[in-house]
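step=predict obj=Acyl-CoA/acyl-ACP dehydrogenase n=390
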Amino acid sequence: MKYKDYFIRNEREQKFAEMADQLAVNFAKRAHIHDEEGSFPFENFEDMKEAGYLKTTVPKEYSGDGASLYEMVLMQERIAKGDGSTALGVGWHVGMMLSLRESREWPEELFKDFCKKVVEDGEMINSFASERATGSPARGGRPQTTAEKTEDGWVISGRKTFSTLSPILNYFTVSAGIKDENKIGRFLVQKSENVKIEETWNTMSMRATGSHDVILDNVFVPDSALIEVEVPGEKTHHQSDSGWMLHIPACYIGIAHAARDFAVNFALNYRPNSLPGPIAEVDHIQQKIGKIEAELKTARMFLYSVADRWDKNPEERLGLKSELGLAKYVATNSALSIVDQAMRIVGGGSLSRKLPLERMYRDVRAGLHNPPMDDVVLKGLATAAFWAKN
């Protein structure tokens, strides 16, 4: 009997899922090459551009598909089944476009113009905020990158780390401390000769995301590209809702889902001469498969239910912060366990670079270091519990 995904609820979602599934087939064929080389999968992004994937979360009024958060999660999980690095990379783009569509935090003309670039030219976007001295922007801290006001714009200088998609982006946003003021600006920057990429990304996990350092050396940005000026400690548009970041747990669930499929197929077909049938008939293998199924189903149910609530109840989005963080916590930690169990089922052969499991094992480790981190999620849950008692 053909597997039915009960999280696909209608024809529109079916079409989105089929597009992602078709893309993932070729991504899976290339994944080991880019992993071994640490190279950026330009061809994957060309495929997504041609398929129209890059415009799925662009608003309909600007010729996009207006994909919901639920639909984005559905697609991203499937892309990750083919290649985790590609899914995590494109997730920042489709997630940001969804966030910008909902918040309208950019000046409208700037947003409209960029949507046109996405739809017509296949341009993408990401936010470069991390720096070595400040760590994750989610932890706070003033960026060392600086922006100095000029007569008709700004001049920005600094270095950004963990700049995912840096090899392919022509546009990105940066945060920069405004010179001589206790303020932080966010700017849309276009790549130029004053923007350099230093290829520093050489990690054990997610090796093909192109998350190199980006160096800005007196980069001019016009006044029209200023998105927002914030005062540290005060609430801003981009801090108000993190629903779009469910692309992160969707990615790691997708990797774990692929590991599950590999382990199940292996168990059904591996027949050692010491047994009368495949190892799928052995009790302890069935126990491991059962544990995988329990964790995968639980993680997916929670992820999709939170995404559905976010879509259907806009007025409740700010109150979903704990659930959004918990979805990521459950997904990443379940992914670690699922891939581990899959490797135990396959045995010593799972360590071979000829099989995808060892790459999946390394890739899911990266989820622990994507925001929100486990300690932040758990502290938030504890705070909510204490607050509920007062």
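step=describe
The first strand starts at residue 127 and ends at 128.
step=end
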